[in-house]
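Hi R.,

Here's the chain you asked about this morning:
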Amino acid sequence: MATTYHKAGEALRVATPRPGVFKGKARGHQRVATLSRGRVTVSVPERLAIPCSCSCAGSGRDHLGGASARGAGLPGAIAHEREGATSRSRGGEEAETPENVKDITSIRQLIDELERATDKLVIVSFHATWCSACRKVQPMVVNQVKNRAEDILLLKVRYDTNKSICKTLGVRKLPYFHFYRGSQGRLADFSASAKTFHRITDAIEEHGTPRCTLGENHIVPHELEDLLEENQSKGGR
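And here is the predicted structure, written out as tokens:
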């Protein structure tokens, strides 16, 4: 079953098969669903409720059409990527996000994280929820840096909610990566996907060796500071 991604709050059309029709081509009813915090809520008449085939079977509870793509495996179900502090493993359990991986939500936060990194290698990953290449390469990058909290920091900048940052830093292609370090400032920037992941590992090998840089810290791009000043003058952050 193909995975479809939608924006939060977007109205969705969900096909809900009639109960008991699981052979051949099921005839479905169209219902409007709303996505909120990664979950799909569907309001349908009780007669259209679909028996649950997961662990709650026999408990008297039902899943509605489209509410569980992986658990019920039903036609018309929709799967969504959920943004948050945790990610799901193959076993279905929630795994904590590594301490050196941060989701950026504002210009101020990005500047603060860069300044606090001091001599650590900082990788800024620009991505979007609708970008399939981003969804493939992001877990690979996290896995690459998760055991190097002492010398590498990964900052994830979501394009959908940080367009001004991406535009200011010249990001015109996704997924895209910037590498920064102390007084050396920006060391490299390039696009890389799962197929060209060696670009990321090569850059980490080249720039990720422990070191103490001398001189004034230039890790924060001047254009980013200008953007923050402009935003603050307009009441933003």
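One quick note: Residues 1-6, 14-35, 41-92 have pLDDT under 50 and may be disordered.

Cheers,
M.
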